[in-house]
């Protein structure tokens, strides 16, 4: 049996690591905000369909989701990857130039 509190706490941890409000995450996974809030508080347990939507959005397995030792580094990497996929070629070129400038500044210090 799954622990509602553990699922809620882990969901909140992952959501916060992505820098999303409960409302914005609910929109991202097409879920009612109040239902998501109840899941995070351990009042409700998500349906299988809801859990699949959550895991797909976080791009993690259920095993990873339940692992309380998971660092947020993977989440940040995934968040950056998703953002990069949405950039145009011009955006990527501009970003590349910014990265070059940052490297130059780091070398000066």
Write up this protein.
The protein is 72% helix and 0% strand. With 109 residues, the chain is an all-alpha fold. The chain folds into two domains: 1-70, lambda repressor-like DNA-binding domains (434 Repressor (Amino-terminal Domain), Orthogonal Bundle), CATH 1.10.260; 72-109. The chain starts with a helix and ends with a helix.
CATH class of the largest domain: Mainly Alpha
Number of domains: 2
Q: Shape, please?
A: elongated
**CATH topology assignment of the largest domain:** 434 Repressor (Amino-terminal Domain)
Any idea what the CATH architecture of the largest domain is? Orthogonal Bundle
Radius of gyration: 17 Å
Query: How many helices in DSSP terms?
Result: 7
Helix/strand-derived category reads: mainly alpha
- CATH superfamily of the largest domain, by name, is lambda repressor-like DNA-binding domains
Q: Quaternary arrangement of the chains shown?
A: single chain
Binned, the helix content reads: over 70%
* Strand proportion: under 5%
**What is the ordering of alpha helices and beta strands?**
HHHHHHH
